[in-house]
Specification:
This protein has about 325 residues and is α+β, with helices and mostly antiparallel strands. Helix content is about 35%, strand content about 15%.
Length: about 325
Protein backbone atom coordinates (compact mmCIF):
# COMPACT_ATOMS: atom_id res chain seq x y z
CA UNK A 1 0.00 0.00 0.00
CA UNK A 2 1.30 3.45 -0.89
CA UNK A 3 2.40 5.72 1.94
CA UNK A 4 0.74 9.11 2.33
CA UNK A 5 3.27 11.65 3.59
CA UNK A 6 4.10 15.34 3.28
CA UNK A 7 5.34 14.88 -0.29
CA UNK A 8 2.12 13.26 -1.50
CA UNK A 9 0.20 16.52 -2.18
CA UNK A 10 3.20 17.94 -4.06
CA UNK A 11 3.43 14.85 -6.24
CA UNK A 12 -0.33 14.88 -6.81
CA UNK A 13 -0.11 18.46 -8.08
CA UNK A 14 2.79 17.54 -10.37
CA UNK A 15 0.83 14.64 -11.88
CA UNK A 16 -2.26 16.82 -12.26
CA UNK A 17 -0.30 19.55 -14.05
CA UNK A 18 1.18 16.96 -16.41
CA UNK A 19 -2.30 15.66 -17.23
CA UNK A 20 -3.63 19.19 -17.75
CA UNK A 21 -0.75 19.80 -20.13
CA UNK A 22 -2.09 16.93 -22.25
CA UNK A 23 -5.51 18.55 -22.44
CA UNK A 24 -7.16 16.59 -19.61
CA UNK A 25 -9.29 18.72 -17.23
CA UNK A 26 -8.26 17.96 -13.62
CA UNK A 27 -9.22 18.79 -10.03
CA UNK A 28 -7.91 17.68 -6.59
CA UNK A 29 -9.09 14.50 -4.84
CA UNK A 30 -8.78 13.34 -1.25
CA UNK A 31 -7.54 9.92 -0.16
CA UNK A 32 -11.16 8.69 -0.32
CA UNK A 33 -11.29 9.47 -4.07
CA UNK A 34 -13.85 12.19 -3.39
CA UNK A 35 -13.28 15.86 -4.31
CA UNK A 36 -10.84 17.42 -1.86
CA UNK A 37 -12.61 20.78 -1.70
CA UNK A 38 -15.81 21.09 0.29
CA UNK A 39 -18.84 22.66 -1.35
CA UNK A 40 -19.29 26.37 -0.66
CA UNK A 41 -23.02 25.63 -0.49
CA UNK A 42 -22.94 22.98 2.26
CA UNK A 43 -25.75 23.45 4.74
CA UNK A 44 -27.83 25.61 2.42
CA UNK A 45 -31.57 24.98 2.42
CA UNK A 46 -32.94 24.17 -0.04
CA UNK A 47 -29.82 22.41 -1.37
CA UNK A 48 -28.08 24.38 -4.10
CA UNK A 49 -27.63 22.82 -7.53
CA UNK A 50 -24.74 25.08 -8.49
CA UNK A 51 -22.14 23.66 -10.87
CA UNK A 52 -19.65 26.45 -10.38
CA UNK A 53 -21.74 29.34 -11.62
CA UNK A 54 -21.11 31.09 -8.28
CA UNK A 55 -17.42 31.40 -9.18
CA UNK A 56 -16.19 29.63 -6.04
CA UNK A 57 -14.27 26.33 -5.97
CA UNK A 58 -15.75 23.24 -4.35
CA UNK A 59 -18.01 21.87 -7.09
CA UNK A 60 -16.21 18.60 -7.65
CA UNK A 61 -15.83 17.57 -11.26
CA UNK A 62 -17.20 20.94 -12.36
CA UNK A 63 -14.01 22.56 -11.00
CA UNK A 64 -11.91 20.60 -13.50
CA UNK A 65 -9.62 22.71 -15.66
CA UNK A 66 -6.60 22.50 -17.95
CA UNK A 67 -5.34 25.98 -16.99
CA UNK A 68 -2.10 25.47 -15.01
CA UNK A 69 -2.68 28.57 -12.86
CA UNK A 70 -6.20 27.42 -12.00
CA UNK A 71 -4.95 23.90 -11.22
CA UNK A 72 -2.36 25.32 -8.82
CA UNK A 73 -5.01 27.48 -7.16
CA UNK A 74 -7.30 24.48 -6.63
CA UNK A 75 -4.51 22.45 -5.04
CA UNK A 76 -3.44 25.41 -2.91
CA UNK A 77 -6.99 25.48 -1.54
CA UNK A 78 -6.82 21.71 -0.92
CA UNK A 79 -3.43 21.21 0.80
CA UNK A 80 -4.31 17.64 1.83
CA UNK A 81 -5.17 16.44 -1.66
CA UNK A 82 -3.46 13.13 -2.42
CA UNK A 83 -4.62 12.70 -5.99
CA UNK A 84 -6.53 14.21 -8.85
CA UNK A 85 -9.62 13.48 -10.86
CA UNK A 86 -9.89 13.71 -14.64
CA UNK A 87 -13.23 14.97 -15.93
CA UNK A 88 -14.75 12.72 -18.59
CA UNK A 89 -16.77 13.87 -21.58
CA UNK A 90 -14.93 17.18 -21.89
CA UNK A 91 -13.15 18.51 -24.98
CA UNK A 92 -10.68 17.97 -26.50
CA UNK A 93 -10.47 14.25 -25.68
CA UNK A 94 -14.08 13.68 -24.52
CA UNK A 95 -12.80 10.87 -22.36
CA UNK A 96 -14.88 7.75 -21.78
CA UNK A 97 -13.65 5.58 -18.92
CA UNK A 98 -14.26 1.82 -18.87
CA UNK A 99 -13.83 0.82 -15.22
CA UNK A 100 -13.18 -2.93 -14.93
CA UNK A 101 -13.44 -4.22 -11.39
CA UNK A 102 -12.09 -7.54 -10.15
CA UNK A 103 -13.87 -9.32 -7.31
CA UNK A 104 -12.84 -13.00 -7.11
CA UNK A 105 -14.73 -13.48 -3.83
CA UNK A 106 -17.98 -12.79 -5.65
CA UNK A 107 -17.03 -14.37 -8.95
CA UNK A 108 -16.89 -11.05 -10.77
CA UNK A 109 -14.56 -10.91 -13.78
CA UNK A 110 -15.26 -7.63 -15.53
CA UNK A 111 -12.43 -8.09 -18.03
CA UNK A 112 -13.87 -11.46 -19.04
CA UNK A 113 -17.34 -9.95 -19.32
CA UNK A 114 -15.99 -7.21 -21.59
CA UNK A 115 -14.29 -9.82 -23.79
CA UNK A 116 -17.59 -11.68 -24.15
CA UNK A 117 -19.40 -8.45 -25.01
CA UNK A 118 -16.76 -7.81 -27.67
CA UNK A 119 -17.38 -11.26 -29.16
CA UNK A 120 -21.16 -10.83 -29.06
CA UNK A 121 -21.16 -7.36 -30.62
CA UNK A 122 -18.15 -7.73 -32.93
CA UNK A 123 -15.77 -5.08 -31.65
CA UNK A 124 -12.24 -5.02 -30.29
CA UNK A 125 -10.73 -2.70 -27.71
CA UNK A 126 -7.77 -0.97 -29.39
CA UNK A 127 -4.47 -0.39 -27.55
CA UNK A 128 -5.09 2.58 -25.28
CA UNK A 129 -4.08 4.25 -22.03
CA UNK A 130 -4.75 1.85 -19.16
CA UNK A 131 -4.58 2.65 -15.46
CA UNK A 132 -4.15 -0.07 -12.82
CA UNK A 133 -6.18 0.44 -9.64
CA UNK A 134 -5.13 -0.54 -6.09
CA UNK A 135 -7.85 -3.23 -5.95
CA UNK A 136 -6.50 -5.04 -9.03
CA UNK A 137 -8.93 -3.54 -11.52
CA UNK A 138 -8.14 -1.33 -14.47
CA UNK A 139 -9.44 1.78 -16.21
CA UNK A 140 -9.42 1.87 -20.01
CA UNK A 141 -9.34 5.35 -21.51
CA UNK A 142 -11.30 5.82 -24.73
CA UNK A 143 -12.54 8.90 -26.57
CA UNK A 144 -16.05 9.67 -27.73
CA UNK A 145 -17.28 11.68 -30.72
CA UNK A 146 -18.21 15.34 -30.30
CA UNK A 147 -21.87 14.74 -31.17
CA UNK A 148 -22.44 11.97 -28.61
CA UNK A 149 -22.95 12.22 -24.86
CA UNK A 150 -21.97 9.06 -23.02
CA UNK A 151 -23.81 8.77 -19.68
CA UNK A 152 -22.37 7.37 -16.48
CA UNK A 153 -23.50 3.91 -15.47
CA UNK A 154 -22.61 1.27 -12.92
CA UNK A 155 -22.89 -2.41 -13.81
CA UNK A 156 -25.33 -1.95 -16.68
CA UNK A 157 -23.17 -3.63 -19.30
CA UNK A 158 -22.21 -6.41 -16.90
CA UNK A 159 -21.43 -6.71 -13.18
CA UNK A 160 -18.17 -4.98 -12.40
CA UNK A 161 -18.13 -2.79 -15.53
CA UNK A 162 -18.75 0.86 -14.72
CA UNK A 163 -18.75 3.64 -17.29
CA UNK A 164 -17.46 7.14 -16.63
CA UNK A 165 -18.89 9.59 -19.12
CA UNK A 166 -20.21 13.13 -19.12
CA UNK A 167 -20.30 14.50 -15.57
CA UNK A 168 -18.13 11.68 -14.22
CA UNK A 169 -14.44 11.40 -13.52
CA UNK A 170 -11.55 8.97 -13.34
CA UNK A 171 -8.85 8.89 -10.69
CA UNK A 172 -5.67 9.94 -12.46
CA UNK A 173 -2.48 7.84 -12.53
CA UNK A 174 -0.06 8.82 -9.79
CA UNK A 175 -2.90 9.48 -7.34
CA UNK A 176 -2.60 7.95 -3.88
CA UNK A 177 -5.71 6.81 -2.02
CA UNK A 178 -6.34 5.12 1.30
CA UNK A 179 -6.09 1.78 -0.52
CA UNK A 180 -3.01 2.42 -2.64
CA UNK A 181 -1.66 4.10 -5.75
CA UNK A 182 -3.13 4.34 -9.26
CA UNK A 183 -0.49 3.51 -11.89
CA UNK A 184 -0.21 3.46 -15.65
CA UNK A 185 -0.12 -0.09 -16.97
CA UNK A 186 3.26 -1.04 -18.45
CA UNK A 187 3.45 -0.33 -22.16
CA UNK A 188 0.58 2.18 -22.24
CA UNK A 189 2.23 5.40 -21.01
CA UNK A 190 3.18 6.44 -24.56
CA UNK A 191 -0.33 5.87 -25.93
CA UNK A 192 -3.12 8.37 -26.40
CA UNK A 193 -6.75 7.49 -25.61
CA UNK A 194 -8.12 5.45 -28.51
CA UNK A 195 -11.50 6.10 -30.15
CA UNK A 196 -14.34 4.09 -28.65
CA UNK A 197 -15.43 1.33 -31.08
CA UNK A 198 -18.77 2.16 -32.67
CA UNK A 199 -20.42 -1.07 -31.54
CA UNK A 200 -19.38 -0.42 -27.94
CA UNK A 201 -20.48 3.21 -28.21
CA UNK A 202 -23.96 2.01 -29.20
CA UNK A 203 -24.09 -0.08 -26.01
CA UNK A 204 -23.03 2.91 -23.93
CA UNK A 205 -25.62 5.27 -25.44
CA UNK A 206 -28.94 3.40 -25.50
CA UNK A 207 -32.01 5.01 -27.08
CA UNK A 208 -34.07 7.24 -24.76
CA UNK A 209 -36.21 5.23 -22.37
CA UNK A 210 -34.14 2.08 -22.77
CA UNK A 211 -31.01 0.71 -21.15
CA UNK A 212 -28.13 -0.98 -22.86
CA UNK A 213 -28.48 -4.73 -23.17
CA UNK A 214 -26.45 -6.21 -20.31
CA UNK A 215 -23.68 -8.63 -21.09
CA UNK A 216 -23.67 -11.99 -19.40
CA UNK A 217 -19.97 -12.80 -19.45
CA UNK A 218 -18.66 -15.17 -16.81
CA UNK A 219 -19.56 -12.85 -13.99
CA UNK A 220 -22.35 -13.41 -11.53
CA UNK A 221 -23.99 -11.24 -8.93
CA UNK A 222 -26.99 -9.02 -8.33
CA UNK A 223 -27.37 -8.05 -11.99
CA UNK A 224 -29.62 -5.07 -12.58
CA UNK A 225 -32.93 -5.91 -14.19
CA UNK A 226 -36.35 -4.33 -14.60
CA UNK A 227 -37.17 -1.76 -11.97
CA UNK A 228 -38.98 -3.37 -9.08
CA UNK A 229 -39.06 -0.85 -6.26
CA UNK A 230 -41.28 1.52 -8.21
CA UNK A 231 -43.10 -1.11 -10.23
CA UNK A 232 -46.77 -1.93 -10.09
CA UNK A 233 -48.56 -5.17 -9.46
CA UNK A 234 -48.90 -7.41 -6.42
CA UNK A 235 -45.38 -8.82 -6.66
CA UNK A 236 -43.49 -5.52 -6.86
CA UNK A 237 -42.98 -4.75 -3.12
CA UNK A 238 -41.88 -8.30 -2.31
CA UNK A 239 -39.54 -8.33 -5.28
CA UNK A 240 -38.01 -5.03 -4.15
CA UNK A 241 -37.53 -6.39 -0.64
CA UNK A 242 -35.79 -9.49 -1.95
CA UNK A 243 -33.52 -7.42 -4.18
CA UNK A 244 -32.72 -5.09 -1.29
CA UNK A 245 -31.76 -7.99 0.94
CA UNK A 246 -29.52 -9.35 -1.79
CA UNK A 247 -27.74 -6.01 -2.10
CA UNK A 248 -27.22 -5.82 1.67
CA UNK A 249 -25.72 -9.33 1.67
CA UNK A 250 -23.50 -8.32 -1.26
CA UNK A 251 -22.09 -5.46 0.85
CA UNK A 252 -21.68 -7.68 3.93
CA UNK A 253 -19.53 -10.11 1.92
CA UNK A 254 -16.94 -7.42 1.13
CA UNK A 255 -13.32 -7.87 2.15
CA UNK A 256 -10.82 -5.08 2.76
CA UNK A 257 -10.15 -3.28 -0.50
CA UNK A 258 -13.65 -4.14 -1.82
CA UNK A 259 -15.86 -2.40 0.73
CA UNK A 260 -16.29 0.99 -0.92
CA UNK A 261 -16.63 -0.48 -4.41
CA UNK A 262 -19.25 -3.04 -3.36
CA UNK A 263 -21.22 -0.46 -1.40
CA UNK A 264 -21.20 2.01 -4.30
CA UNK A 265 -22.27 -0.71 -6.75
CA UNK A 266 -25.11 -1.88 -4.49
CA UNK A 267 -26.32 1.66 -3.86
CA UNK A 268 -26.37 2.37 -7.60
CA UNK A 269 -28.52 -0.71 -8.16
CA UNK A 270 -30.91 0.34 -5.40
CA UNK A 271 -31.32 3.89 -6.72
CA UNK A 272 -31.73 2.69 -10.30
CA UNK A 273 -34.67 0.55 -9.18
CA UNK A 274 -36.35 3.18 -7.08
CA UNK A 275 -35.66 2.13 -3.48
CA UNK A 276 -32.25 3.67 -2.81
CA UNK A 277 -33.39 6.06 -0.08
CA UNK A 278 -35.32 3.28 1.66
CA UNK A 279 -32.28 1.00 1.63
CA UNK A 280 -29.63 3.61 2.47
CA UNK A 281 -29.58 2.99 6.23
CA UNK A 282 -29.39 -0.79 5.80
CA UNK A 283 -26.55 -0.45 3.29
CA UNK A 284 -24.73 1.94 5.64
CA UNK A 285 -25.08 -0.46 8.56
CA UNK A 286 -23.82 -3.35 6.42
CA UNK A 287 -20.80 -1.35 5.26
CA UNK A 288 -19.96 -0.32 8.84
CA UNK A 289 -20.07 -3.98 9.88
CA UNK A 290 -17.40 -4.73 7.27
CA UNK A 291 -15.15 -2.03 8.74
CA UNK A 292 -15.93 0.98 6.53
CA UNK A 293 -16.27 4.22 8.52
CA UNK A 294 -19.84 5.49 8.60
CA UNK A 295 -19.00 8.85 7.01
CA UNK A 296 -17.30 7.07 4.08
CA UNK A 297 -20.28 4.76 3.69
CA UNK A 298 -22.75 7.63 3.60
CA UNK A 299 -20.53 9.56 1.17
CA UNK A 300 -20.40 6.55 -1.18
CA UNK A 301 -24.19 6.15 -1.07
CA UNK A 302 -24.70 9.87 -1.70
CA UNK A 303 -22.33 9.65 -4.67
CA UNK A 304 -24.31 6.69 -6.04
CA UNK A 305 -27.52 8.69 -5.68
CA UNK A 306 -26.04 11.61 -7.60
CA UNK A 307 -24.71 9.34 -10.34
CA UNK A 308 -27.94 7.43 -10.91
CA UNK A 309 -30.62 10.03 -10.17
CA UNK A 310 -28.92 13.24 -11.30
CA UNK A 311 -29.13 14.91 -7.91
CA UNK A 312 -26.80 17.87 -7.59
CA UNK A 313 -23.60 17.45 -5.62
CA UNK A 314 -19.84 17.37 -5.60
CA UNK A 315 -18.92 13.85 -6.56
CA UNK A 316 -20.60 12.55 -9.67
CA UNK A 317 -19.35 9.23 -10.94
CA UNK A 318 -15.95 8.69 -9.44
CA UNK A 319 -13.80 6.01 -10.98
Amino acid sequence: MATIDRQTPTLALAHALAAAGRGLPVFPLSATKLPALRSPHRGEQPPAHCRGECGLPGHGVHDATTDPSAVRALFAAAPRATGYGIACGRAPHRLVGIDLDVDPAYGSDAAGALRQLALQHLFTIPPTVTVLTPSGGRHLWLTGPADTTVPNSAGRLAPGIDIRGSGGYLVGPGSVTAHGRYRLAPGTAHLTPAPCPRALLRLLTPPPGRTARPGTGSASGPVSGPATGSGSGPGAPASAARRGEGLVQFVLAAHEGQRNTRLFWAACRAYEHGFGDALADALTAAAVRTGLPEHEARAAIASAARLTTGRGGKADGAG
